[in-house]
Amino acid sequence: MGEYRRKITAVFADLVGSTGLAERLDPEVFRELLLTFLERMASVVEVHGGKVEHIAGDGVMGVFGADRSHGDDALRAVRAATAMFDELDVLNQRIESRIGVRLGMRIGVNTGTVVVGRTVAGRAVSLGDPMNVAARLQAQAAEGEVLIGAETHQ
After folding, report:
1. Is residue 17 scored above 80 in pLDDT?
2. Vertex 57, ends 9 and 151: CA angle to 5°?
3. Cα separation of 51 and 27, whole Å?
């Protein structure tokens, strides 16, 4: 199967204040905390029918509709974003009592057309502007907020 165009919705979830946490916490504690956060957010993407496209530092990029369109990929992505905050609340309840830390997150969601199919390091990747805009929306969001693009909103 070659490269093809596909309408997708990207969700970019980013941990807020991870640099400060890394400075304050023991490196092993921080590593475990970050890995748990990334695993849980990736799991939420997958439960809602998306795939994890990229994990970088303290952020997770999920894509809905790249492999197979469900017809409601934008809605699935927004529901996943909401569920990520629910999952973060559960995680925070656990870690706050153990190590006295609460995690914050912000999310950007954007829909648009990408080209899917070219492999890099053995994985097919989606390339296009929707991911970049989702990342910019995430950067503009306040802690605890989801910002969505216009096409996702429609």
Report:
1. yes
2. 15
3. 29
